């Protein structure tokens, strides 16, 4: 019986090995077909359509062919055929093949985004990752991670997005993955950094993605990469480069006959024309893009943005009636667009609506639109991205350092092989000396680099990126560890720059930023010879922590500081700023949150009773 069991186990082992080998062979064949499709999508569309009529194909091959067909239809913008091919492929998926299931789920998630079904898209891409994990395909797993990272940008989950993309970057770089995988990684990094307004980093990765696509003649992934590059140029206000980029995109889209990107290219170039105040040219491009909408676009976000750009052009040309028509179309779409980005699109639309109504002399309606805009602005303010940006940059720099260290370790391994060879040739003592020195040197360098990376990460994590002041995280840790834990008496004050929104509205955000930086410098100078600490608490709010000061002493100190502020000009526009402040003192049994709530309540009392005063 034992012999029989052993023979059965051996047979099962060899059968499983044969199945795995066959499965691997099929995947390789599929990916070879995909590579041809990436280079000549139209040719492969014809071949795959013909292949589906053959009866000698397996269920897995039919499922793969239909999934690839769906991808190519979506690339062209033929969403109805893409939906039909995905549906057919789903019916053909074999039960026991996780890889083909993952492949279907990964690309179906992209269509779900186009259908404005973001929750479905996120579920599908996460299931795809699990399927690729089970089928042991690290390349496809990395590609799926980059797609999820990009989808999360639509969800405005920026921290989770960069974590996924960074992990994909590390896996791809340290295992020398394919050009296609690197193109996915670089395109997702470019999308992330451009979305976070870190344009230089975004452009760096967008150029890398474009270059990979050009080198490998990858049209299917190359056009999205080129679109990301053009968008990055436009948002970075490198308008000449953006125009050339969109011209290249129009030429390539026409050459390979891809209607979807014949929408995106003129729509993007129109935004550049708006930035250049070429409003008639912008309208021509927008009408060209609009002619493709019904054929290639399903996601309402894209149509809302197009309508808002029409409205912008018509307003600039003093044609508010036409602008209002497009704004009303955008508002209708927004009613059914329940996504995190809804707030952003609604604010854009309301701003244009108020301007149109004002030009038409309908002032009461304009005021109503502005009131709703103020409400949405307050909601958006609560989800500020500055902290997310600095944390993401800190994590990515640390990741880059880790990669360098890993590469250094590989170099040391090669040096070890060389030294072993020397030892065998009779130079043992010399070899050991060199090995010892290299070990000491590598350990020292590793420790120093780790320390530098840690300090840099800590500095960025505790510093406000705009003003260079300490941030909320730092000051709360300072209060807890240096004052509360040590049972020291202290007072705090929360200061708010008065009418700061008017500074931004009247003089622009650049002057607003100058005011924040100038206020930071002012606080640094005033607190230079004291034990007091301060931080930017959020927006135009700052907190000052005053160890060993009673409530009255803290009130007097902040009052003197606010009086001094009124005599200064902190910006190029010679604007005199004032500040309202609330002061509170830590008491026995009180929590940190309770203390801050008292200070905040006093601040709002100061603001609501005339501003430019200190309440405690």
UniProtKB/TrEMBL annotation:
The chain crosses the membrane at residues 430-448. The keyword Nucleotidyltransferase applies. GO terms for molecular function: diguanylate cyclase activity. Keywords: Coiled coil, Membrane, Nucleotidyltransferase, Signal, Transferase, Transmembrane, Transmembrane helix. Gene3D superfamilies: 3.30.70.270, Tetratricopeptide repeat domain. Residues 1-21 form the signal peptide. It catalyses: 2 GTP = 3',3'-c-di-GMP + 2 diphosphate. The keyword Nucleotidyltransferase applies. Residues 373-425 form a coiled coil. NCBIfam families: GGDEF (TIGR00254). PANTHER family: DIGUANYLATE CYCLASE DGCM-RELATED, REGULATORY COMPONENTS OF SENSORY TRANSDUCTION SYSTEM. This is diguanylate cyclase.
């Amino acid at each position: 019986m034992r012999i029989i069991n052993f023979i059965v186990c051996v047979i099962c082992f060899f059968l499983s090995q044969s199945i795995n080998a066959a499965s691997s062979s099929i995947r390789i064949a599929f990916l070879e077909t995909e590579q041809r499709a990436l280079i000549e999508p139209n040719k492969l569309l014809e071949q795959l359509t013909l292949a589906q009529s053959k009866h000698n194909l397996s269920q897995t091959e039919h499922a793969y062919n239909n999934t690839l067909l769906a991808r190519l239809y979506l690339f062209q913008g033929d969403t109805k055929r893409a939906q039909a091919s995905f549906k057919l492929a789903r019916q053909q998926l074999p039960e026991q093949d996780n890889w083909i299931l993952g492949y279907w789920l990964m690309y179906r998630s992209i269509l779900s985004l186009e259908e404005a079904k973001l929750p479905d898209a996120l579920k599908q891409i996460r299931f795809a990752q699990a399927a690729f994990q089970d089928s042991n395909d690290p390349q496809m797993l990395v590609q799926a991670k980059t797609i999820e990272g990009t989808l999360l940008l639509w969800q405005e989950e920026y921290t989770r997005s960069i974590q996924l993309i960074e992990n994909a970057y590390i896996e791809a770089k340290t295992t020398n993955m394919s050009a296609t995988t690197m193109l996915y990684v670089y395109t997702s990094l470019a999308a992330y950094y451009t979305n976070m307004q870190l344009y230089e980093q975004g452009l760096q990765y967008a150029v890398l993605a474009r270059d990979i696509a050009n080198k490998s003649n990858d049209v299917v992934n190359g056009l999205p990469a080129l679109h990301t590059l053009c968008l990055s140029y436009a948002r970075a206000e490198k308008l000449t480069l953006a125009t050339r980029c969109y011209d290249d995109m129009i030429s390539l889209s026409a050459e390979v006959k891809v209607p979807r990107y014949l929408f995106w290219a003129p729509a993007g170039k129109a935004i550049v024309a708006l930035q250049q105040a070429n409003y008639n040219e912008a309208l021509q491009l927008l009408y060209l893009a609009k002619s493709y909408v019904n054929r290639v676009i399903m996601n309402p976000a894209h149509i809302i943005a197009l309508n808002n750009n029409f409205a912008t052009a018509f307003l600039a040309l003093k044609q508010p009636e036409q602008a209002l028509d497009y704004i009303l179309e955008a508002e209708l779409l927004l009613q059914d667009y329940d996504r995190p980005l809804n707030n952003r699109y609604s604010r854009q639309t309301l701003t244009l609506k108020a301007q149109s109504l004002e030009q038409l002399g309908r002032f009461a309606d304009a005021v109503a639109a502005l009131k709703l805009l103020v409400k949405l602005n307050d909601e958006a303010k609560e989800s500020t991205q500055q902290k997310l940006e600095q944390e993401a940059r800190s994590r990515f720099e640390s990741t880059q350092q880790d990669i360098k260290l890993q590469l250094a370790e590989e170099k040391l391994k090669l040096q070890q092989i060389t030294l072993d060879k020397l030892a065998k040739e009779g130079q043992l003592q010399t070899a050991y000396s060199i090995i010892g020195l290299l070990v000491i040197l590598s350990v020292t360098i590793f420790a120093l680099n780790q320390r530098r990376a840690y300090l840099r990460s800590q500095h960025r994590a505790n510093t406000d990126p705009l003003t260079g002041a300490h941030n909320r995280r730092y000051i709360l840790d300072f209060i807890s560890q240096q004052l509360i834990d040590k049972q020291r008496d202290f007072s705090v004050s929360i200061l708010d720059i008065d009418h700061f929104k008017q500074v931004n509205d009247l003089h622009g955000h650049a002057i607003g930023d100058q005011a924040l930086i100038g206020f930071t410098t002012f606080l640094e100078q005033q607190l230079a010879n004291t034990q007091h600490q301060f931080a930017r608490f959020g927006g135009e709010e700052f907190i000052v922590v005053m160890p060993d000061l009673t409530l009255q002493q803290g009130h007097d100190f902040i009052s003197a500081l606010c009086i001094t502020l009124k005599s200064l000009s902190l910006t190029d526009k010679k604007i005199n700023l004032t500040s309202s402040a609330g002061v509170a003192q830590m008491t026995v049994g009180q929590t940190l949150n309770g203390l801050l709530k008292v200070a905040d309540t006093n601040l709002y009392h100061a603001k609501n009773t005339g501003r430019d005063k200190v309440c405690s």
